[in-house]
């Protein structure tokens, strides 16, 4: 037993987090920043944060992740990190020459109270930021929110680059949230298929799923360009996919640049994808082409073919709020029963939303925001499930409890391909279903007695 | 075979490479880096000086991590029956959660908390009002849930800044709980310039709070401690297998697959064998001063190095049966190793490697590459000090700067009742006369060929330039460097946590490593980088409609 010390009996814990279902804000800001073309993310704090975030992102995406750090030692921690940051800005522009530096803070620089906008002003006055180059920043103390809110803060900082000329450019801003590079690509493909001109930001496709060609580019071809980010202020509207990751940036554009926004769920599964396509149609004022209807029909077809195997199966899921909300809705729509749901990201509205989505199950559902995987495991011990869905850390629970397990979310450290295959949209729905059914059927083939082992199930 | 590999024999000039690495830096940065980049000219009695263990330059993309990573991640991470509780925001504990590939064998009923991640998950109000109460409550909750024999507390950056007195909290909780040893590590990330500071902080506290707690005499005739071995990818298991086979008893391993009791009984061993000099040499010194246990440097990476180290241990004990048994074991183990070496050698002979890892690892792995006929043309440490490069002879000359001064040195004296010299001065003298070196390490530089590059704290930009300019056949570093090197068409092997595979220690480990490197340098994939139409864009016929 890997988690042999986890008791089934649940006791209240007020101070101790065990096996978190979240991590800290800066890594989210770093991931988001990689979705800007020519951007070097910069971590303002001691260098371990940057090393950890780069390592985790690299292990998940299997791609180079470049980011710099202010490398605080004790001196900077006492006297403030301004000198380190200024030195970093000039070193970064002379050695790496990015288009833009996206700075995020850490708990260290936040606790000593470094004022990044002030430091940026100083850098500008001292001529450390070359003409035409940019520095943006997000405040991401690790003792608030989670990696999800850190991502959101950096996306909001990106929206802060928007400029409005007073003339609309006919484009729709799409903020995809923390999804895989392949998902961002799929969202662009769907918009393209519908003939919608879009600005997707951040966009890590091409950056974190790049080719192997014998060349190393610190700033690969992909990513939303600075020009595109500026143009978001002239868009006809913004679709924010997932309130936690994308809502703030969309609301900012609405408030500051009068770009109307619609906050949707992330387009995982049938219904959420339907709403995304429909919102895109209305916002852009176009007709949905038959190709999209065909993809949708294929997903409906697969759902009907698989229904017998999925019906009433109990599922435990953990991960990030935007993903979990859409996944819960999808599982319910398949007549499955998501009964234990945990996110580490705080927020009461998450629990409320999950309760609404699962109300039709006609049974109590365990849900907790600001929970951890220790609690999830205890719930599973109390009431076993047929399937577990979540990031790689779930495999310890899956093995101990002998559960079929679908890896989905962040981080996935022990499997590959997720950076290439989308799980959003109708096509993504097909892939999710294939994975879920594959796990359930593998398990059945393993467990059935010889007499029940059949070729055609 | 692909073009990418074939073209790598290109000649290069060390002076030109160094100039190229420095070219793009602002003058101040270039001056500093120049002292950390050395063209090796190790002569018989002279080792060139390198600048090491100095601050990382802000904004320069570094390979280094922080003090907390060294303390919790590297040293205490592999201890299985200690609840490692991180006091701080959630991230620090999350990132150090199982990512070092530490393995352990707790048996069916043994305690094992390695798969758990414990944190006080500090929130804004804890930063404002202080987190001591929350820490005490978290220790209590961990105790109530698991009743572990020991709880270790780790400070993260904000804890030091807001002044939480974690040591007092730990001491109070230790008293309150009674049967659980609680202690704390002031390993805030900003202390020191690299992970190395964290190793030091961890080791000091283990020495202060655990070593010597259990005086029970364990069975075994030849009792040693293995210091500086972290059981990455199962290395420690392989070394343990060999010890057992030879009849050597390993009282404790610091800290791969280790238990609380191993540390507590470490003072009952008769010899300390030091693997990673950087991370732990001072513990060996302290064990000698306080308890009278001598130490020697060993290396179990590489078959020849393993044989040499086993012989060195046997020679220390001077027991004829043990010496004979070690020879038997070597004779039994070597044929399998030699067979695989002979098999891979036609494909590895003459190939080149670069290694930038750790504080001794880059040196250790040189042995394995030697055994395959591969040459290490550039190497360096991520967190080494000058003595790791130049040998312990330079220790008196190392200037202590402000960052090193912040790391506590423990004053140790001979234990009034338990100090006991393991060898008489006469015995020691006899061994030394026979060429035996106690308390000594020669460092990396004397082992590197003339004209090769020794680079301290290599960064991403320089790594990329080195690979571009020299085109080694293999590059070894960590996960952060892996994919940028591979994009250039050069295979990259992680040597901190090993990306996959292991163990690489001992005889079986050597076999694993030969096969792994053979796989990497012979992989077909490097031949696929260019599409046929990119390799030969000329058209020979036209297509007519």
Automatic annotation (TrEMBL), chain A:
Pfam families: Oxidored_nitro. Its EC number is 1.18.6.1. Binds 1 [8Fe-7S] cluster per heterodimer. It is an enzyme of class 1 (oxidoreductase). Keywords: ATP-binding, Iron, Iron-sulfur, Metal-binding, Nitrogen fixation, Nucleotide-binding, Oxidoreductase. PROSITE patterns: NITROGENASE_1_1. Its cofactor is [8Fe-7S] cluster. Belongs to the NifD/NifK/NifE/NifN family. This molybdenum-iron protein is part of the nitrogenase complex that catalyzes the key enzymatic reactions in nitrogen fixation. Tetramer of two alpha and two beta chains. Forms complex with the iron protein (nitrogenase component 2). This is Nitrogenase molybdenum-iron protein beta chain.
TrEMBL record, chain B:
GO terms for cellular component: molybdenum-iron nitrogenase complex. Signal peptide: none annotated. Its EC number is 1.18.6.1. One of its GO terms (molecular function) is ATP binding. Residues 66-520 form the Nitrogenase/oxidoreductase component domain. It catalyses: N2 + 8 reduced [2Fe-2S]-[ferredoxin] + 16 ATP + 16 H2O = H2 + 8 oxidized [2Fe-2S]-[ferredoxin] + 2 NH4(+) + 16 ADP + 16 phosphate + 6 H(+). It comes from the Bacteria. Its cofactor is [7Fe-Mo-9S-C-homocitryl] cluster; [8Fe-7S] cluster. It is an enzyme of class 1 (oxidoreductase). Keywords: ATP-binding, Iron, Iron-sulfur, Metal-binding, Molybdenum, Nitrogen fixation, Nucleotide-binding, Oxidoreductase. PANTHER family: NITROGENASE MOLYBDENUM-IRON PROTEIN ALPHA CHAIN (PTHR43457:SF1). NCBIfam families: N2-ase-Ialpha (TIGR01862), nifD (TIGR01282). Tetramer of two alpha and two beta chains. Forms complex with the iron protein (nitrogenase component 2). Belongs to the NifD/NifK/NifE/NifN family. This molybdenum-iron protein is part of the nitrogenase complex that catalyzes the key enzymatic reactions in nitrogen fixation. This is Nitrogenase protein alpha chain. It comes from Desulfurivibrio alkaliphilus (strain DSM 19089 / UNIQEM U267 / AHT2).
């Amino acid at each position: 037993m890997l988690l042999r010390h986890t008791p089934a009996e649940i006791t209240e814990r007020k101070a101790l987090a065990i096996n978190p279902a979240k991590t800290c804000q800066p890594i989210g800001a770093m991931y988001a920043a990689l979705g800007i073309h020519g951007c070097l993310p910069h971590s303002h704090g001691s260098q371990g944060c940057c090393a950890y975030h780069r390592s985790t992102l690299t292990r998940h995406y299997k791609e180079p992740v470049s980011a710099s750090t202010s490398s605080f030692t004790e001196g900077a921690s006492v006297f403030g990190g301004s000198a380190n940051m200024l030195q970093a800005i000039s070193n970064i522009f002379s050695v790496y020459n990015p288009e833009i530096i996206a700075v995020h803070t850490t708990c260290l620089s936040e606790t000593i109270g470094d004022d990044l906008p002030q430091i940026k002003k100083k850098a500008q006055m001292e001529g450390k930021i070359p003409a035409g180059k940019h520095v943006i920043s997000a405040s991401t103390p690790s003792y608030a929110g989670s990696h999800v809110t850190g991502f959101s803060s950096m996306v909001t900082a990106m929206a802060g680059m928007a400029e409005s000329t007073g003339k609309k450019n006919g484009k729709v801003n799409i903020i995809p949230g923390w999804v895989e590079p392949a998902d961002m690509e799929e969202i662009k493909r769907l918009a393209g298929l519908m003939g919608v001109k879009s600005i997707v930001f951040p966009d890590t496709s091409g950056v974190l799923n790049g080719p192997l060609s014998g060349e190393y580019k610190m700033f690969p071809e992909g990513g939303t360009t600075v020009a595109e980010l500026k143009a978001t202020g002239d868009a006809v509207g913004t679709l924010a996919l997932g309130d936690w990751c994308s809502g703030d940036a969309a609301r900012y554009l609405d408030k500051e640049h009068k770009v109307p926004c619609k906050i949707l769920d992330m387009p995982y599964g049938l219904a959420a994808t339907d709403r995304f396509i429909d919102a895109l149609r209305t916002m852009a004022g176009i007709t949905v082409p038959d190709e999209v209807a065909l993809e949708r029909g294929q997903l409906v077809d697969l759902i009907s073919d698989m229904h017998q195997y999925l019906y009433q199966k109990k599922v435990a899921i953990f991960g990030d709020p935007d993903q979990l909300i859409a996944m819960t809705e999808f599982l319910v729509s398949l007549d499955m029963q998501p009964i234990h749901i945990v996110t580490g990201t705080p927020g009461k509205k998450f629990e409320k939303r999950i309760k609404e989505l699962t109300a039709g199950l006609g049974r109590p559902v365990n849900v907790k925001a600001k929970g951890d995987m220790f609690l999830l495991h205890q719930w599973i011990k109390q009431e076993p499930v047929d399937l577990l869905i979540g990031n790689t850390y779930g495999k310890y629970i899956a093995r101990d409890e002998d559960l079929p397990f679908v890896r989905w979310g962040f981080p996935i450290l022990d499997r590959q391909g997720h950076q290439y295959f989308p799980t959003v949209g109708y096509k993504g729905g097909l892939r999710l279903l294939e994975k879920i059914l594959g796990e359930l059927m593998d398990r059945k083939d393993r467990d059935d007695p010889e007499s029940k082992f059949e070729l055609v199930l | 075979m692909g073009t990418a590999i074939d073209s790598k024999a290109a000649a290069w000039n060390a002076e030109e490479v160094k100039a190229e690495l420095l070219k793009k830096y602002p003058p101040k940065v270039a001056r500093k880096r120049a002292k950390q980049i050395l063209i090796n000219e190790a002569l018989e009695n002279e080792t060139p000086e390198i600048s090491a263990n100095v601050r990382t330059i802000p904004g320069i993309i570094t390979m280094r991590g922080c003090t907390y990573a060294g303390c919790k991640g590297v040293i205490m991470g592999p201890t299985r029956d200690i609840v490692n509780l991180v006091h701080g925001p959630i991230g620090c504990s999350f990132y150090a959660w199982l990512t070092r590939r530490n393995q352990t064998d707790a048996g069916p009923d043994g305690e094992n908390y390695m798969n758990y991640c414990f944190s006080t998950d500090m929130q804004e109000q804890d930063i404002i009002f202080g987190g001591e109460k929350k820490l005490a409550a978290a220790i209590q909750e961990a105790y109530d849930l698991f009743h572990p024999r020991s709880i270790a507390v780790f400070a993260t950056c904000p804890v030091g800044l807001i002044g939480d007195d974690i040591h007092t909290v730990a001491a109070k909780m230790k008293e309150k709980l009674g049967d659980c040893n609680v202690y704390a590590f002031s390993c805030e990330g900003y202390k020191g310039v690299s992970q190395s500071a964290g190793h030091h902080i961890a080791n000091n506290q283990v020495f202060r709070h655990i070593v010597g707690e259990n005086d029970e005499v364990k069975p075994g005739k030849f009792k040693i401690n293995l210091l500086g071995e972290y059981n990455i990818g199962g290395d420690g298991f392989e070394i343990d297998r060999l010890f057992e086979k030879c009849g050597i008893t390993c009282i404790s391993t610091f800290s791969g697959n280790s238990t609380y009791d191993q540390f507590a009984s470490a003072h009952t061993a008769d010899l300390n064998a030091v693997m990673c000099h950087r991370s732990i040499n001072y513990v060996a010194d302290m064990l000698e001063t306080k308890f009278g246990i001598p130490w020697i440097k060993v290396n179990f990476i590489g078959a020849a190095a393993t044989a040499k180290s086993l012989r060195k241990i046997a020679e220390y004990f001077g027991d004829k049966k043990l010496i004979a048994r070690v020879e038997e074991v070597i004779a039994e183990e070597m044929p399998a190793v030699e067979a695989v070496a002979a098999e891979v050698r036609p494909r590895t002979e003459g190939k080149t490697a670069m290694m930038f890892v750790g504080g001794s690892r880059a040196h250790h792995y040189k042995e394995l590459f030697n055994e395959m006929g591969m040459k290490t043309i550039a190497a360096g440490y991520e967190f080494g000090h000058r003595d790791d490069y130049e040998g312990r002879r330079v220790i008196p000359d190392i200037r202590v700067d402000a960052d090193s001064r912040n790391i506590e040195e423990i004053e140790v004296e001979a234990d009034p009742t338990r100090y006991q010299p393991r060898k008489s001065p006469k015995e020691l003298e006899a061994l030394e006369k026979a060429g035996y070196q106690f308390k000594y390490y020669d460092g990396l530089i004397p082992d590197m060929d003339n004209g090769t590059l020794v680079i301290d704290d290599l960064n991403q930009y320089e790594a990329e330039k080195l690979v571009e300019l020299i085109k080694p056949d293999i590059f070894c570093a960590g996960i952060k460097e892996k994919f940028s090197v591979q994009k250039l068409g050069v295979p990259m092997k992680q040597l901190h946590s090993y990306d996959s595979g292991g163990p690489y220690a001992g005889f079986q480990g050597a076999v694993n490593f030969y096969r792994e490197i053979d796989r990497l340098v012979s992989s077909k994939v490097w031949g696929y980088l260019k599409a046929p139409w990119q390799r030969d864009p000329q058209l020979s016929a036209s297509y007519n409609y």
